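User: I've been trying to design a sequence by hand for this structure and keep getting stuck. Would you show me what you'd pick, starting by listing the structure so we're on the same page?

Assistant: Good idea, let's start from the same input. This is the structure you sent:
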């Protein structure tokens, strides 16, 4: 699979699907833009030549061009977004760090993460922070603890967002356009509705970081009930974290089955986001702390004693397995949710433009007929005009046909892919 550490290429990562689709759609929009530019100069030429009466649509064509440019701008910013939720201290921030293979987010016992933290890729060589309050003032990543920790005195609002722009060349997920959002514990804030509206409506995947030492709690359940009432069938993964504790316990298999039963019951029967068959595939028994430590060790940071517990290999394997399923899910979901809209808008624009061009064609044909009937009076002069109009008509016909066909073929093949 594509999981091979930080800096190296990963040709088979499922995340590539998103990048490839983004590239394809971008190419199609470039074609559409070229088509519209052609149409633009064509229509302008007709208006200028005065061959056709009352053709006044170059403004309209220009508007189409603006719209396509707008779509292309949004497209360039499109990404895959995953939001992590769970109660305080369940290990949300640790999980994200493990996935990023670097200790970027502050973690700790007690209530640590105080506001929303969004980690996204940047092309610069050094990481920096941007706050909502001062979006034009990049801040040093060193100030993250001060800004984002509940223990600090300079508190931001709980529903405020700090963007962490982290160098893409340091992390594969960020390079592939994944954006990861960390949140404060859902048990410490009353403002869940606001959170959902502000941070969740464009999320492709939700990861509930649960605590395998206890069980799924009502606060966690309520949150996802709210989410699923706002979004139809959200993609939810559940990490039963802190499973390293199982190294010290009896009846581990029974506890595991209990967690699994309750979680699947929640996903499938309660919030009804998937059927039972798929439910079990969305639950993972992991230890984010072990995963982070072992990944840091691969990069030369020694693991403190006591972090890797007996049986850790299996939990590391499960963590990696979670990442694989997660990557498949998020890339598919993002392609669908982000690009389907663009594709439909693009198709709509092309169709509008087609109508507009056919209208011109219609006018030119009418005018040829009129010209023919009155030609006896104006013979020679009109001969020339007729030829021009015929040429024009054929040219419009040909162009509309080939351009529309070309664009539609590309859209269809990308959608099929
Ligand atoms: P808040 O930000 O307060 O909402 O918590 P959080 O969910 O982000 O938890 P965080 O990642 O800060 O982890 C809390 C504490 O639990 C830290 O001391 C972690 O090292 C520890 N921790 C996280 N994951 C695990 C795990 O899998 N096993 C064990 N034993 N400890 C863990
Ligand atoms: Mg945290």
């Amino acid at each position: 699979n594509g999981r091979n550490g930080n800096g190296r290429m990963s040709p088979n990562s499922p995340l590539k699907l998103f990048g490839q689709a983004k590239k394809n759609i971008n190419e199609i929009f470039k074609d559409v833009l070229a088509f519209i530019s052609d149409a633009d100069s064509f229509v302008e030429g007709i208006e200028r030549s005065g061959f056709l009466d009352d053709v006044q649509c170059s403004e309209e064509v220009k508007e189409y061009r603006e719209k396509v440019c707008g779509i292309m701008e949004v497209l360039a910013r499109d990404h895959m977004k995953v939001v992590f939720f769970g109660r305080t201290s369940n290990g949300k921030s640790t999980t994200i760090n493990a996935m990023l293979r670097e200790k970027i987010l502050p973690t700790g016992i007690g209530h640590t993460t105080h506001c929303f933290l969004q980690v996204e890729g940047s092309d610069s060589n050094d990481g920096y922070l941007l706050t909502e309050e001062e979006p034009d003032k990049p801040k040093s990543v060193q100030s993250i603890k001060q800004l984002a920790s509940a223990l600090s005195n300079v508190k931001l609002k709980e529903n405020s967002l700090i963007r962490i722009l982290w160098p893409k060349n340091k992390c594969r997920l960020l390079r592939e356009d994944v954006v990861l959002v960390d949140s404060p514990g859902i048990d410490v804030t009353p403002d869940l509705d606001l959170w959902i509206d502000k941070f969740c409506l464009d999320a492709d995947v939700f990861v509930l970081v649960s605590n395998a030492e206890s069980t799924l709690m009502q606060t966690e359940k309520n949150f996802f009930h709210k989410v699923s009432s706002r979004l139809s069938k959200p993609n939810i993964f559940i990490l039963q974290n802190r499973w390293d504790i199982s190294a010290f316990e009896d009846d581990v298999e029974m506890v595991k089955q209990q967690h699994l039963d309750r979680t699947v019951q929640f996903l499938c029967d309660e919030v009804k986001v998937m059927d039972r068959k798929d439910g079990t595939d969305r639950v993972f028994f992991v230890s984010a702390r072990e995963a982070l430590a072992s990944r840091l060790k691969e990069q030369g940071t020694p693991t403190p004693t006591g972090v890797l517990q007996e049986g850790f290999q299996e939990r590391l394997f499960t963590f990696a397995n979670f990442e694989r399923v997660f990557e498949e899910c998020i890339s598919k979901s993002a392609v669908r949710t982000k690009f389907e809209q663009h594709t439909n808008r693009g198709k709509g624009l092309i169709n509008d433009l087609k109508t507009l061009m056919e209208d011109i064609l219609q006018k030119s044909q009418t005018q040829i007929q009129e010209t023919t009937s009155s030609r006896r009076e104006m013979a020679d002069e009109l001969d020339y005009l007729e030829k021009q109009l015929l040429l024009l008509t054929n040219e419009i016909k040909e162009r509309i046909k080939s351009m529309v066909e070309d664009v539609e073929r590309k859209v269809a093949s990308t959608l099929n892919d």
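That's my pick for every position. To get oriented when you compare it with your attempt: The chain has twelve helices and nine strands. The pocket of guanosine-5'-triphosphate (ligand 1) is lined by residues 86, 88-94, 107-109, 111-113, 184-185, 209, 241-242, 244, 287-289 (CB under 6 Å).
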